[in-house]
Amino acid sequence: MKRPQAQVAVLQAADADDPRRIDEVADEAGLKPETATRAAFELEDDGLLSVTEETVEHYTLTDEGTQYVFESLPEQDLYEAAIDAGADEEPVQMGQVIGASGLEGPAVDIALSNYARKGYGEIDSGEITADPDAKPGQDAEMLALEAVADDQLDEADADALDQLERRGLLEVREETVRSVQLTDEGVAALEAGVEAAETVDQLTAELLTSGEWADVEFTEYNVEADAEDVSHGKEHILRQTANRVKDTLVGMGFQEMEGPHVDAQFWINDCLFMPQDHPARTHWDQFALERPDEIGELPADLVDRVRSAHKEGVGPDGEGYHSPWEEDVARGLDLRGHTTSLSMRHLSGEEIGELEPPKRFFSVEKVYRNDTLDPTHLLEFFQIEGWVMAEDLSVRDLMGTFTEFYEQFGITDLEFKPHYNPYTEPSFELFGTHPETGEVVEVGNSGIFREEVLSPLGVDCDVMAWGLSLERLLMLMYGFEDIRDVHGTLCDLELLRTTEVLH
Ligand SMILES: N[C@@H](Cc1ccccc1)C(=O)O
């Protein structure tokens, strides 16, 4: 019988009595592991070979785990100090024992939580006792750590290994190991004699130019064969979602706005009827530019109208803020803290000329805020800005637009909460439910621009507007719990490589 060469080599290397690991067989047959695996599956299909799979776990110690193997577990140190202090006879002040143990920083908490869990003693109202019968010298987790370090896995206790993984002292990697064994049919085939057929598994330039490709026999594809993982470059999931958001909004009839990342406070704050002494305008919240420190041009008429809105208010019953308004402050340059600056530029006619209702505009652009970093905050994020200009708009229009927009991303449980913005009335915050934690997460802010904003801009119909967070949308879509895993310097490359992208 004639068979492709790789199959013949695998058949000859395989054994009838015992399973052999495919990587050994490949080695002996002089084949790449993936070629041998492919050949093995083909032989299995033809009944000549059986392929079995098992999952093998590989354990490696983390840096912290390695440190404990050389030293000791923090709870062992604590126990030793507790015994030295006489805590096996009567409760001792915890501070005293911790001081004597030499434990510092996070090791203290680690020691305390494991101490109690392992029954080394009790910790109560600042006092510690030690159980004289505890045997920290035979700590199952320490023994398991040592077993892993010495590569003596069969001596390690399974529960202790689990616990070490949970404590972050150990990492477990699973590998699928395949083994092959000749079937009776395989043995018979070998006895009857198998010869290597000249099959070709790669179409080369030579085959094509010589015309030989027409005569050779090609190896069949096996799409189930193992192949090496290749992590190739691809579009970042946040960028992919940003593009999807843009497509969705264009599909809903919106046009895209563009504009500067660094802008005058005038466009970022003053046009929005944010008083110059508003707390959000301080350096605690936004980043200011030192050089250059002010914008070259501002439209003089608009500056006058905005000043007047701030000082005297708008309309016969209007009330301004009665607080100082300085053009110098308005000229100051900041990294925009929201893209509502783009909405102001567009609505004023400054960016693309006067607009007639109805109009819909959006942007999906970066904004910058001096926030404290945490799982839901970065110093910069993408805002999905948008507004609709029309004769008569109501809160229903606003809610309807959000419902329609978020539905396209599978989010159907939006909640609205009344809110306050200096520039919109009424205003609403939007919330969604995190699919993993069940927590209610704020996803955006919105409202209907008030007269004090629209009148200076020269807009005399209604405008409803919003700023939504692209990152929060992503968290709800994918269940990400920490935005720092997704972008920024701490991002989790493995997560980004393996997340299945939604379309
Ligand atoms: N600028 C607001 C969002 C918003 C835009 C327009 C109107 C209302 C709210 C924010 O960043 O939170």
UniProtKB/TrEMBL annotation:
Matches recorded under InterPro entries: aa-tRNA-synth_II, aa-tRNA-synth_II/BPL/LPL, Phe-tRNA-synth_IIc_asu, Phe_tRNA_ligase_alpha_bac/arc, Phenylalanyl-tRNA_Synthase, WH-like_DNA-bd_sf, WH_DNA-bd_sf
Pfam families: tRNA-synt_2d
Gene Ontology molecular function, alphabetical: ATP binding; magnesium ion binding; phenylalanine-tRNA ligase activity; tRNA binding
EC number(s) stated in the UniProt entry for this protein: 6.1.1.20
Keyword Protein biosynthesis listed: yes
Top-level taxon of the source organism: Archaea
Co-factor binding details: Binds 2 magnesium ions per tetramer.
Subunit (UniProt): Tetramer of two alpha and two beta subunits.
Alphabetized Gene3D superfamilies for the sequence: Bira Bifunctional Protein, Domain 2, Winged helix-like DNA-binding domain superfamily/Winged helix DNA-binding domain
Sorted UniProt keywords: Aminoacyl-tRNA synthetase, ATP-binding, Cytoplasm, Ligase, Magnesium, Metal-binding, Nucleotide-binding, Protein biosynthesis
Organism: Haloarcula salinisoli
Name of the protein this chain belongs to: Phenylalanine--tRNA ligase alpha subunit
Subcellular location as annotated: Cytoplasm
Binding locations of L-phenylalanine: 340, 383-385, 423, 449
NCBIfam families: pheS, PRK04172.1
Entry cofactors: Mg(2+)
Domain Aminoacyl-transfer RNA synthetases class-II family profile: 245-498
Chain residues that bind Mg(2+): 425
GO cellular component terms listed in the entry, alphabetical order: cytoplasm
Keyword Metal-binding: yes
Known catalytic reactions: tRNA(Phe) + L-phenylalanine + ATP = L-phenylalanyl-tRNA(Phe) + AMP + diphosphate + H(+)
One annotated GO biological process: phenylalanyl-tRNA aminoacylation
Annotated family: Belongs to the class-II aminoacyl-tRNA synthetase family. Phe-tRNA synthetase alpha subunit type 2 subfamily.
Top EC group: ligase
